[in-house]
Amino acid sequence: MAQLTSILDNDFYKFTMQYAVVKLFPKVKARYQFINRGQHKFPTGFDLKLREAIDAMAKLKLTKAEKIFFSQNCPYIDPTYFDFLQGYRYDPDEITISQTGADLEVKIEGYWYRAILWEVPIMALICELYYELGDLKRFPDEQVIADAKNKIQKYKKLNITIADFGTRRRYSYHVHQLVVETLKKYGTGTFIGTSNVQLAMQYQTKPIGTHAHEWFMFHAAKYGYKMANLLGLEHWADVYRGDLGIALSDTYTTEVFFKQFDKKLTKLFDGVRHDSGDPLEFADKIIAHYVKNGIDPSSKTIIFSDGLDYEKVAHITEHCQGKIGYSFGVGTNFTNDVGVPQMNIVIKMTEAQPEDDEWTPVIKLSDEPKKHTGDPESIQLAKKILMIHD
Among 364, 390, 384, which Cα is nearest to 35's? Predict the structure, then answer.
């Protein structure tokens, strides 16, 4: 049955954000909720199996070897954080699970610095249990390996760099292992790392990531929608002092982001991550933004990470070549392209409680309107304040 084996079986940006939250916002509380975008139907008793797997996570702890690997790869993080992480334990009481018929509900609530680590492993467990309990058979290991090898060899010919971002919607941990091992073995010079810290350690590659939408969603709750991007990036720079310099641009649409991505931040950050909307339009906009600010676009990088496969990557590469730096983070197409229907699920922050204030709804206004998340009333208010017209 699906079960996590390490506290590091999580995305790198969860730890980098946790460190920043511990430093800057230790009293903040957060709530998250499971969103079943694909309307998947869960078998009877799924909630009980998920509860069992989550309860087992309370036993996970950072080992000495994991602590050494993690700290050696992150010289920009204070040693005190790794001592904190060594003492951290998941508290399953922060999770509420219920099931009505085939519909699953999962909620997370706790201090943000604690609750922040739950999202990715819970999604990975939901996916793995869904395939296990539904008895959805995948391709055999040999084909998983052959497909991953074929993909990385095709990517090699594009002369690009690429990372695995596939933890949250993988078929299983075992498939994820096979994929990362294969990418590392056959992707020299092309495969640059994985978002999964445990697998980065296991296969001696680089953990990849910076921050996620929730970082900016919280900043909107505390400082208002108009200041969310600006202060989110300022605070990130206060913590990391120029390291981890890829800015996520689409929490409140890219148009709004560019208005707040001033010359100082544009120069300070190494580049931006594209996660929704048309990638070619985005590339043209960011190139124009750099030129307008007197910055050579070729000195900056776009990380593309929105639902990528080979065709999309090839198309983006052709468009961006010679204009700007670019790299790619491929998720589900690496870790769940194994002959079963892929899951379309997310877990998003829904409310934040800055210090002793009231609980405040938080939202995300993606460049793809279908990917907006949050309370409809708050979405309309944010659109009005930010003058967004879908």
Answer: 364
Q: Which of 193, 181, 177, 162 is nearest to 128 (CA)?
A: 177
Strands (E), the chain: 29-35, 95-100, 103-111, 162-164, 191-194, 206-207, 246-248, 271-274, 301-304, 325-330, 346-353, 360-361
CATH 3.20.140.10 domain span(s) along the chain: 12-137+342-368, 141-335
Both tokens of 300, joined, read 């900056």
Q: Give the 3-state secondary structure of residue 247.
A: strand
Q: Which CATH class is domain 141-335?
A: alpha beta
pLDDT at 357: 81
CB atoms within 10 A of CB 79: 9
276: three-class secondary structure by DSSP: coil
pLDDT in tens, 197-223: 999 999 999 999 999 999 999 999 999
Reported as a single tens digit per residue, the pLDDT across 212-268 is 999 999 999 999 999 999 999 999 999 999 999 999 999 999 999 999 999 999 999
**Cα(239)–Cα(19) distance, rounded to whole angstroms?**
9
How far CA 149 is from CA of 158, 283, 373, in Å, comes to 15, 29, 36
- Residue 335 exposed, middle or buried by CB count within 10 Å (0-12, 13-18, 19+): buried
CATH topology of domain 12-137+342-368: nicotinate phosphoribosyltransferase (3.20.140)
Alpha-carbon distance of 269 to 245, in angstroms, equals 5
CB of 42 closer than 8 Å to CB of 102? yes
